[in-house]
## 1
Amino acid sequence: MPVKKLNINSDNENRRLDNYLMNRLKNIPKTNIYKMIRKGEIRVNSKRIKPLYKLKSGDEIRLPPFINIDSTSNSNEYYSDKFLKDFKKNILFSNSNYLVINKPYGLSVHGGTATKSNLISIIRKIYNYENIDLCHRIDKHTSGCIVVSLNKKANISFNRCLLKNEVQKVYKAIVKGSIGNDIEIENELFSRNHKTKSSLSYFSPIKKLKKSTLIQVKIETGRTHQIRKHANSINHPILNDYKYGDDKYNKLMNDLVNNRMYLHSFIISFNDTNGALISCEAPLDDSFNDAINKLS
C-alpha cells in the first residue's frame, strides 16, 4: 500500500503538527498519533519531526499507508448517495469561502453523544474541504439559513462581522395570540457563560391567524435563544417551543398542525472576505406553510 500524503496550505500555516493531526485524523487516538510521530511513521518533508513543529505552507506530511484519510477526515455516519444528492437542494449559496444552507427543522448543526446525523457531518460528506466549520448556530428545532465556512480565513472573517454586528438576520415565527403593532424588545439575557448581555429584537406582525400571529423578527444581537426568550417575555411564546412556550396553547394547536417549533431563519446577509455582500433567503418548508394555511 502506498503512503498517504497531506499537503499544507496557508489555512494551516503556523499550526502545531500535533494539533493539526488530531483535528484531521479525528478517529485516531491522540496517543497513537504521538507514537507514530515519535517512531518516524509520520514525517514532514520526508524528515522526522517533533509534535510541536509549526507547519508551513507547502509542507508535505507523510502518513503510514494503513491510515484512511477519507474516513478520518469525515464523520463515520453513513449517508446514502441519494440522501446527499437530495440534501444539496438545501444549499442556497456556495462559493470557495461559504455555504448558506436552508437547514431542515429537527436536524442538529453538530454532533454529540446522543446525536448522530448532523449538518456538519453531512456537509463534510458532500464537500472535500479540510476546514469546513460552522460560522454560527441555530437550534436543532429551528429551520432556515445557516452559514458554513470552507476555510479558516472565511470563518475568521465571518466572526469579525458578528463582533461588529455586520451580520443581518431576519426570522419568521408563529406566536401565541394577536400582535397588532411592531414591538421592540430590549433587555438583559444570560449568555452561555452565565453572564448577562444586552439583547435587542424587533417583532413585526405579518398575518393574523387562529389564536396566533405570523410575525417577522429582526435581531440586532445574537444571544442564546434570544427570540424564544423575547417572545415568552411579552406573553407571545412561539408555537411548539417546549422550553419557553405555553403547554396549553401548544396542545390546542397540535390538533391542527405539525408538532415542530415554528421558528425559521428567513434571511441572512453578511460580507464575503473581499467585502462583497452575500444575502440569502430561505423559503418556508411545507410543514410551516401548511400550518399558516390551516390557521388562516
Note: Residues 25 and 216 are 43 Å apart (CA to CA).
## 2
Amino acid sequence: AGATSIRKIPVPVTSIRRSALLQIPSTNIVDALSHIPGVSQLSTGPAISKPFIRGLGYNRVVTISDGVRQEGQQWGDEHGMEIDEMSVTRAEVVKGPASLMYGSDALAGVIQFISNTPVANGTYRGNVLMNYQSNNGLLAANAGLAGNNNGFNWNINGSYKSAGDYRNKYDGKVLNSRFNEKNFGGYIGLNKSWGYSHLIFSHFNQQLGVVEGDRDDATGEFILFGGSPLERVATKEDLDSRKVFAPNQQVQHNKIVSDNNFAIKKSRLKVNLAYQNNLRKEFGNPEDPDEEELFFDLKTLNYTLHWQLPVKEWHTTLGVNGMRQSNQNKGEEVLIPEYNLFDIGGFIYTQRFFKKGTLSGGLRFDSRSIDSKPFIEGTEEKFSAFTRNFSNVSGSIGVSYEPVNFVTVKANIARGFRAPTLAELASNGTHEGTNRY
C-alpha cells in the first residue's frame, strides 16, 4: 500500500522499503524488522529469529510472502523464518488483530513481504548486493535481473550467505553458531488492461549449527560432540572453521504461486493459488552425521479468492481463503504425529472514504479441522488418532480521521481468533534443539 492509503487505514501499519532494510545491520529479515516500534524478536543465534508484535509471537503472528501465508513449523523455538531478506523489496507490519482478512493466528498482527514488483514498461534492471559483517565474518551476495517488455515482465534473483561463529565478550567465539544459505527465486507474468497474471517461485536452503555450550571441566574450553564417544575439546581450527558440526539443522522451503487479478467491469477478482513444501531436518548423532533424527515434511496448498465490489460510495470485498496441509515424519524420532489439516474462512469487508477520514469494518467466519494419525513406537502407542474441529467468528470496526495534513487519528476495535496448533494438542517427546520435553 502507498503512504497515503496507509494513513487512511484505521489499523496501525508500518511500511519499510528495500533501501531502508539494506541500511539496517542484520543477519536475517526478522532481525531487520525488530527495529520497528512494537516489533521484537526471539533469537537463538544469528540465523534464527522469530517475530513478536506487541509481545505476542509464534502462531499468533501471520507471515505473508508475495500474497501467500508462510507455513513452516513455526511453533518451534529454533524454527526460523524461511525467507531470503536480500530478495525483499518492501515489508509491511500490521499491528493488532487481523483475523478478519487473514484468518486464524493473526492475533498480534501480520508481517507481509513483497519480493516481486514489476519494473517500469520498456526497462531492464540488474542489481548486485554485497554484505560483510565483522563479528561472525558473514559474507553475503545477491544478484538479480528484471525486465518489462509491453507488459510481459519477469524477475530472477539468487543469494548466498556464509557465516562463522559469532563472538561475545564472555565466550569469545561461540562454537557451532555458524550457518550458510543458498536461495533463489523470481517470477514471470503479464500485466495488461484486464489485470495481471504472475507465476512466482522461490527456493530457500539453509544449514545452521545448534549451539550446545558444553565446556571442559579442566580447561573451560568448548566441547565438541558432548556425551558421545567422539567427545573432545574444540581446537582453534574448529572455532575458525565454517563446517557445521552436529547438532545442526537443514531447512528447505520450496514455493510456487499463481497470483492473478482480473478487472471485471467496475469490480476486481483476485485468485491466488500456492503450493509450499517445507523440509526440516535435524541432525544430532556425531557418529553418523547424516542420520536424520527429526525430519518434518510439511506440504501446504493455499487458496485465496477476493471479489472487490464498488457498491455506491462503499468499497466492499467478499472473500474466501484457507489452506489444506499435511505433515509426514521421516526421521528416526517423532515429536508430533502425522496429520491432515483443512482450513477455510469467508469474510465481508467494507470501507468508505471521506474527505478527512475513513470508516471500515467487517465480519468473518473460520472453520479448521485437524485429523491426527496414530503412531506406535515398539509396543507403546506414542500418539493416538483424533479429530478436532474449531470454528469462530472474527470482526473489526475502525475509523481514521485527518484533522490537518500530516496528523492522523485512528481508532480500531477487533476480535481475533487462533486455533491450537498440532504441537499444542499432541506433541510428545524431547526436542533436542531446546532440551525440553
Note: Residues 120-426 form a domain with the Maltoporin; Chain A fold (CATH 2.40.170.20).
## 3
Amino acid sequence: MARIGALIVGMRWPAGGDWKGAIGQVIRAVAAYYNAHPAAGALLMRGNFTPIDRKAHEEKDAMIGNLLRERLHTLGVLGDLPRQPDAATLAVEIAFACMKYGYMAEGHISEAICAEAEQAMVAYLSRWEAP
C-alpha cells in the first residue's frame, strides 16, 4: 500500500491541468507495479479476502483516492468532487475493478485493460468537470 502511494506521490503530473492524461499515467504506473510484482498482483487482484484484508484494501483505496483528490486540486480541476460518497475513492475502485478483471482474465494487466480503466475513471470523474 505504501509503495503505491509513494509511486503516485513521486509521479510527474502533466502541466496545464491535463487531469485526464494524469489519470492514464496513474493507472499505467499502478498496473506496471502489479505486473512487475506478481505476489502483490496476486494478493490484490485475486480476491478471497478476510475481513482484515478487506479493511486493508479499503484503506489503500481511500489513501489513493485522497492522493488523487489532492493532485486534482493541485491541477486546479474537479474541485467539487463529493466527499460523501467519496467520488475520488469510487473512481479508484472503478479503475481497480477493471484491472482486477484484466488480471483474472489474462494473468496480468494489459495496455488494453489500462485503456478501459482510464476511460471508465475519466467518464465517471467528468461529471464534475467545469463547463
Note: The mean pLDDT is 87.
## 4
Amino acid sequence: MAFAAQNATYIDCDVEEPNGRLFLKPEITAEEKVEVMIPKADFEKCNACRICVDFCQYNALALANNRLLVFKELCHDCGGCILLCPEKALTEQGRVIGKVEYGISGRIKTKTGILNTGEAVGIPIIKKLSENIQEDNTYIIDSPPGSSCAVMESIKNCGCCILVTEPTLFGIHNLAMVHELVKLFDKPHGVIINKYIEGETVADDYCSQNRIPVLARIPYDDNIGSMNSQGRIAAAEDDKYLAVFKEILQRVQEEVQHEAVAHIER
C-alpha cells in the first residue's frame, strides 16, 4: 500500500515484530529511544502502608517483609502510586523499553517501532510513533494483529481502517473481533480478503451480513508467497498488484474525504 501511494509515510506499529522494514529496506536516518517512567522507592521514607500496592491494578508493586518491591516490567507508567504516597517515598526514574527508527525508502518515509526483547508493554512506543501526524499527508499505519490495547492505540488517529482477513473460519473469527473494535471507535472501514479462493464465501458472507465494503479480493497466489519469503514487494514487481493497491488507496482516500465533509456538516 505504501509503495502504491509513494508520497506517504509508512508507520509500523507492530512493535513486537516489525517486518515492514524487511520489505521497504529503508535507509535509517535517525533513531530515538523510548522511555517509560517507573517508581523508585526511598526506603528511609517508606513506612510500608500498602497504599501504592493496593492502588496498582497491574501488580507492579508488592510488599515483602515490609519492604516495597517494584516489578518494572509490569509497570504501565501511570504515575498513580507516586501521587498517592503519603510519605513522598516514591520518585520517578526512566527506563528504556525500545526505540523508534526513522528512515527513507525511495519516496516513502518510514517510522518503525521496536520493542526491546522481554518487554511486556509496547503502547508507549506506539504513542511516540503517532506523534506529529499531519492531516494533509498520507500515512499508512501497520497495526499489530488482533484487537488488543496496542491495536486500539494504533488506530486512534486513523481516518480509515483496512481490515485484512482470509476466507477461513479462523480468519472470520479474528475479523469479527477487530470489526467490533473499529465500530467502537466509530472509524470508517473496509475489508481486503487475502488468499481469496473462488467459491470460498465465508468472508464475503460476513461482510455482506454486516454491511462492510469489500475493498479488494487478492487471489491465493504462490508467487506472492514466494516474494514475501524473499522480502520482495508484490506491487513493485507485478503491475497487476500495483493496480489493485492503487485502487484500494483511491477508495480509502475518497472515504476519508467523505467522512471529513460529513463531520463538518454535523
Note: The chain has two domains: 2-35+99-265, 37-95.
